[in-house]
Every structure is written in structure tokens, then in C-alpha cells.
Amino acid sequence: MTNKKPIFAAKYFSYIIFIILLFVLQTTPGFLTVLEIKPNFVIPAAVCIAMREGEFLGGLYGAFVGILCDLGGFNLFGLNAILLLIAGVACGLLTIYLLRPGLFNFLLLLAAVLLARGLLDYLLNFLMWGYENVWMVLAYRILPGIAYSLVMAPLVYLLYERLYRFFQQKLES
After folding, report:
1. Measured CA angle at 153 (ends 147, 158), to 5 deg
2. CA distance 74 to 68
3. DSSP letter at 30?
4. pTM to 2 decimals?
5. pLDDT in tens, 25-47
6. Within 10 Å of residue 104's Cβ, how many Cβ atoms?
7. What is the DSSP letter of 138?
8. Coil, strand, or helix at residue 34?
9. Contact, 150 vs 110, CB < 8 A?
10. For 51-64, how does the pLDDT look when each residue is reduced to its tens digit (9 = 90+)?
């Protein structure tokens, strides 16, 4: 077991590097922007990690991704960290006890996480303040952003699966 510790350390460190690279791509101005809507890459990465690594690491990486989302957005700082911590734990537990890790289940879990996060963002930042025509934010920003993130999510899933399989082969040998 002692010779597997460096492999686990490299695995978890590479997940952090993977998430940071996705965050850099996500926040790059003009990268994959369609009608001023950008996809979210780091939340799909957190859901992937939660599906494969379980609830504890899913929660930790979810909180890390939430902090990155808080740094890159204009929401109340810490809200995304708490939401994605809960989502990471929930995705990990659902995958352990109910679902198999696969692309379809990944997309279902991701859709639920993105929709919950988007609707809470809409409620707390727009709807409760009583702005005029606030439905336009939901219809033209939040829901298309969720759909675009879901369309781009299989790329993140495939990249993560390659990384996961690489380390699994190292651990088995």
C-alpha cells in the first residue's frame, strides 16, 4: 500500500490541475462564446469526480469548483461553494447506491445540478428584487447557459474518463 500513496497523490493533484485548466478555458474571453453565452466546464468536472470517487471527494472537489465559480462570477461569495459541496455529496451517494457511472447518468445528474444552481441564482439575484422583465434573464441567459453546458459536457466527461482510467491502470499494476 505504501507504493500506491504517490499514485493517489498524483491522481488527486492532477484532478486539481484538470479543474484549473477547465476554469481557465471557461473564463477565457470569447472562447466558445455563442450569442454571449459561455458553457460551464468546471461543474461537469466536479460531477464526474463525484461519480467516480464517491461522496467525500465529490464534496471536496465540489466545494473547490464552487469557490472557483464564486471567484469568476458576481454572486454572493460562498453560495456556489455550498451548493456544489451538497451537489458533489449527493452525486457521489446517488452513484454509490442507485446509479451506475455512465454518460447518460452523468448528463442527468449534471442537468439537475445546473438547473438547481441556475434557478437559485435566478431567485436570489433577480426575482426577489422585483426587477422589470426579469423573466428575460431566465429565458435568455440562465436556461441557454444550462443547455450549452450540457451540450459541451460530454467532452469534459471523456477527458475525465481518460484521466481516471490512466490512474486506475497505474493503481492496478
Report:
1. 160
2. 12
3. T
4. 0.91
5. 999 998 889 998 999 999 999 99
6. 9
7. I
8. strand
9. yes
10. 999 999 999 999 99
